[in-house]
Amino acid sequence: SADDGYRLWLKYDLLKNANVRAQYQPFTLYIAHAATDPVTSTAAKELQTGLQGLLGKSIRLQSTASTAPGGISLELTTTPQPNLGTEGYSITTQNTRVKISANTPSGLLYGAFALLRKIQTATPLSKIPETSVPRVQLRMLNHWDNTNGSIERGYAGASLWKWYELPETVDPRYRDYARANASIGINAVVLNNVNASARFMSREYLLKVKAIADVFKPYGIKVYLSVNFAAPRILGKLKNSDPLEPAVRQWWVDKASEIYGIMPDFGGFLVKANSEGEPGPQDFGRTHADGANMLAEALAPFKGIVIWRAFVYKADPKGDRFKAAYEEFKSLDGTFLPNVVVQVKNGPIDFQPREPFSPLFGAMPKTPLAMEFQITQEYLGFSTNLVYLAPLFKECLDSDTYVKGAGSTVAKVIDGSLHQYPISVMAGVANTGSDRNWCGHLMSQSNWYAFGRLAWDHQLSSSAIADEWIKMTLTQDAGAVKTILAMMERSREVYVDFTTPLGLHHIMGQGIHFGPEPWLERSARPDWTSIYYHRADSIGLGFDRGINGSNALGLYHPEAIKQWSQVDACPLPYLLWFHHVPWGKKLNTGRSLWDELCTRYYTGSTAVGTMQREWAGLKGKMDAEIHADVLGRLGAQQREALWWRDACVLYFQQYSKMPIPAPFTPPS
Ligand code: GCU
Q1: Helix, strand, or coil (residue 340)
Q2: What pLDDT score does 316 carry?
Q3: Whole-number pLDDT of residue 254
Q4: Atom of ligand 1 nearest to the CA of 194
């Protein structure tokens, strides 16, 4: 039914196997908690609702502590336990008693969802006990939602936030959204687009925002807002927004106390400044640090933070956009106030199907760096392509920066352990919208889920996360789980192969970022063309970023450079990111560059056909509507894959002047 898509991974339907249910019976007579705060109450109620559904019986809820056998108790520690951190939990079992303990109500909430997840996925009793603490403090979604209900790069309908109705009307869906986030550990949400309307700073909008914040609060989620740097001029009618101008500083100080007067739990600001035409401190000859510090000073008395984005680049046809963020931010390390975080996209360009990690990771030891991943599939086929993103996220997090010796992974930069950052943040650009199933493509729900799970614990494997998600969302049929898991695990590589194999990047349709357009030669900006990135010519293909080229490679640590600098040793997934390679060059696959390129385009698009057939074979193993919907989208993906393949092979062939290799040519 349509409802199956709506319920995400929170389907608490009766566990089909009676033996599995029976093992949980002895400790599910009651749920008890003595804490009186709203978050603990949420935890208890979620447990009750979930377990009643899964086990098909009613379970008593009592708001006093209990040590009687047969139940689950939620207990706040009387003295803080260091091993549980602020939001961690432990689940212990003793005879027929389960105890969830935590230092804070949020910890209890996460413990409750963890227990539910275990029971929902039929985990044996011996594996129920667990202690888990999040590795990252702020696990955050960034919504790119506008006041008019549209979403920048949103492919699942309109915005969830109904600004015109708020604050008087509060859509019950806000609560469903909050539950889903809490269940995967997300504790922070930026409601609006980084290309921010100044209106979000108006009292009118702040009251609307408060209405949403009130719904999120019992789920342990804080609200943040993207701000327009020119708000003092636009809203405050000041003559400019110069961060060193006393009147401007005062405007922000006043605005901060107004905001915290309305929402004492407000999280802080996210800022896109001097990027893609947005206003910023450089408009007045000031630095990013001047701008960020002004806002940080205004928020500091309320413990708010400023998350300042490093997504900046200049239109220079001779330059290399790869280097832009590094060049603007590296030298500012150490100049930001303690409540400023700099948010960096995972790769140096822009959410491509594959990028090397941004060279800023590891380069700013004195400034907490936040990770910005994109969950919405802007460059990854919108909502017609099945692309499981956990392998992409993991690939970046597991990359070694080498800045403090081998093992200095990007994950350790982000979780703060490498440089002892006081604040740690992982953000994901949300893929939710008003579509009944939230994400457009049902399978894209897994990307929301995986983002949250990895933000909690980046050591989880992408297959373990997919396995949980499939069992909670689609089916527990062992064969079907196996087929779907294998499909998800290879889906990102398949997408890379039929769109941008071997390190090609940014050759998609102009502006829309969909479909192939490698022939794009002119646009409003030189770094928004395709030929700027792929550099195809009669000799070969790829962007030389070595010492004879842009030397973007030189921004990395020498050990990281080593892995990519030699054309013969460079791993093929990154080859054309760093080298201009002759068409006839023999690669370690035994094929020439041209033959390898064709092979990837052809095998990638064929693999989509295989996914389609495999999915068709799953009929009857899951909800019929979900099955049919995903099958339809795989059909669309197949059509798009052929479009990509033919467009790119025929376009690049004009330069290689070589025939399409035999296995792929139709018999004459
Ligand atoms: C991409 C995207 C824009 C977005 C920008 C950003 O360039 O296409 O729509 O505004 O990223 O992250 O700021």
Answers
A1: strand
A2: 82
A3: 98
A4: 13
User: Fold for domain 138-460?
Assistant: TIM Barrel (3.20.20)
| DSSP helix/strand/coil, 410 | helix
- How far does residue 514's CA lie from ligand 1's centre (Å)? 14
Ligand 1 in reach of 321 Cβ (< 6 A): no
Give dist(CA 643, CA 608) in Å, integer: 12
Q: Is the CB of 344 under 6 A from ligand 1?
A: no
pLDDT given at position 162: 98
Domain boundaries, the chain: 2-132, 138-460, 496-664
Q: Which pTM value belongs to this model?
A: 0.98
Cβ atoms within 10 Å of 316's Cβ, excluding its own? 12
Q: Which residue has the tokens 């990252």?
A: 136
Under 8 Å between Cβ of 433 and 154? yes
CA distance 70 to 29: 6
Secondary structure class of 238 (helix, strand, coil): coil
Rounded CA separation 185/454 (Å)? 9
Please report the beta strands in 577-637, taking only residues with DSSP state E, as ranges in sequence order: 581-582
**Which regions of the chain are under pLDDT 50?**
none
- Give residue 588 CA to ligand 1 midpoint distance, Å: 36
Among candidate residues 86, 219, 89, 209, the one with its CA nearest the CA of residue 147: 209
- Other Cβ atoms within 10 Å of 168 Cβ, number: 8
Pocket test for ligand 1, best of 378, 506, 508 (most atoms within 8 A of CB): 378
Taking alpha carbons only, the member of 315, 495, 250, 243 closest to residue 392 is 495
What is the reported pLDDT for 336? Answer: 98
Q: Which CATH number fits domain 496-664: 3.50.50.60, 3.40.50.2000, 3.40.630.30, 3.90.1330.10?
A: 3.90.1330.10
**Rounded Cα–Cα distance for residues 44 and 361 (Å):** 40
Cα–Cα nearest to 188, from 270, 255, 246, 249: 270
Looking at residue 1, its pLDDT comes to 67
Residues assigned a catalytic role? 276, 350, 378
| CA atoms of 487 and 387, how far apart (whole Å) | 9
Neighbour count for residue 239 (Cβ, 10 Å)? 11
Q: What is the largest CA-CA distance in the chain?
A: 80
Which superfamily does CATH assign the domain made up of 2-132 to?
Chitobiase/beta-hexosaminidase domain 2-like (3.30.379.10)
Closest CA to 576 of 562, 594, 555: 594
Could you tell me which of 447, 443, 473 has the C-alpha nearest to residue 621?
Answer: 473
What local confidence, expressed as pLDDT, does residue 244 receive? Answer: 98
Task: Determine the distance separating the centroid of ligand 1 and the alpha carbon of 385, expressed in angstroms.
Answer: 20
Rounded to the nearest 5°, which phi and psi values hold at 546? -90, -170
